[in-house]
TrEMBL record:
Coiled coil: none annotated. It comes from Armillaria ostoyae (Armillaria root rot fungus). It comes from the Eukaryota. GO terms for biological process: purine nucleobase metabolic process. InterPro entries: OHCU_decarboxylase, OHCU_decarboxylase_sf. Residues 17-151 form the Oxo-4-hydroxy-4-carboxy-5-ureidoimidazoline decarboxylase domain. This is Oxo-4-hydroxy-4-carboxy-5-ureidoimidazoline decarboxylase domain-containing protein. Pfam families: OHCU_decarbox (PF09349). Keywords: Purine metabolism.
């Protein structure tokens, strides 16, 4: 079982890596998490009342994310694995995506479809990856959700539609920004759902 540092350890000034460890467990590792979010929190946490829950830590983190520009937010969500990936997953991501040895294997045609849908999504929304709060759903269900997001008919085709048929939206435009903001919200939901798996609140 993944162990998260205690709230007391996180708020202690030394050793400082407890906060970084907790953020990585809750949000997945990304360079910008360490270079930006971590130092922001080391400055702001001492000015706040002592945290009474990990949920509060997540809320404070999301509030700081809200001060970032879109490019930084996109780098942050890129720390999460793509839906359907099976390599280099953290234990929590593997469990969330149903990729553990204790869960039923995802059919290869669903994995192939997800790989193509990820490519389609990233063509339509340049610089973003598809993030969703899985919440116990199967990868097949997520594939259908992605198809809906992309305006596609349900299929198990590994290459339909062709990427050439996908029209990108403008980076920074309303559609792109809406997807970015939705992804950040879902990362918060994912982080809070992890608290149950970690046995903390």
């Amino acid at each position: 079982m993944t162990l998260i540092p205690t709230l007391e350890q996180i708020q202690a000034s030394c050793p400082a890596n407890f906060l970084a460890d907790a953020l990585t467990i809750l949000f997945e590792h990304s360079p910008i998490l360490i270079s930006n979010l971590y130092p922001q929190l080391t400055r702001i946490l001492p000015t706040l009342p002592l945290l009474s829950s990990y949920s509060q830590l997540i809320d404070v983190s999301l509030n700081q994310l809200g001060t970032w520009d879109d490019k930084m937010k996109a780098q942050f969500i890129a720390g999460h694995p793509r839906i359907g990936e099976s390599k280099n997953l953290s234990k929590l991501s593997a469990k969330e995506q149903g990729a553990t040895s204790t869960t039923a294997a995802t059919p290869p045609e669903v994995l192939a479809r997800l790989a193509h849908l990820n490519a389609c999504y990233e063509k339509k929304y340049p610089g973003l990856i598809y993030i969703t709060f899985v919440n116990g759903r199967t990868r097949a269900a997520i594939a259908e959700e992605m198809e809906g997001k992309l305006g596609l008919e349900h299929s198990l085709s590994p290459d339909d539609p062709t990427l050439a048929d996908i029209e990108p939206v403008a980076v920074g435009g309303p559609g792109w920004t809406s997807e970015l903001d939705r992804a950040v919200v879902d990362i918060g939901l994912i982080a809070k759902s992890r608290l149950g798996a970690l046995g903390v609140e």
